[in-house]
Amino acid sequence: QVQLVESGGGLVQSGGSLRLSCAASGRTFSDYAMGWFRRAPGKDPEFVAVISWTDDISYNTGSVKGRFTISRDNAKNTVYLQMNSLKRDDMAVYYCAARLRFLRPRLYDNDYWGQGTQVTVSS
Description:
By secondary structure, this protein is an all-beta fold. The protein is built from no helices and 11 strands.
């Protein structure tokens, strides 16, 4: 059974940092694109970042580029999201997703996704 399990969320002050992890199990993900989405209260999920199976990286340039860094460790079947200079606008549930070769821009169009981890940013 394939599972994606996010961790690392929590409460942080504005300007602070968090590192999210997504541990994948049930198969090897080295040929999968893996990424992060987030959903703020009352809004649809928003694409945050993706790392392809060839390690190409893209970010939601409008909101997170320069502050967030995505990376992966194929030996651990894990993808990370380092989030720096957090703002109140970053507060959301963060979801990990995976899809063979290329990630789709909508969370639920991908092959797998996790249950999410809450990120709360206080002012």
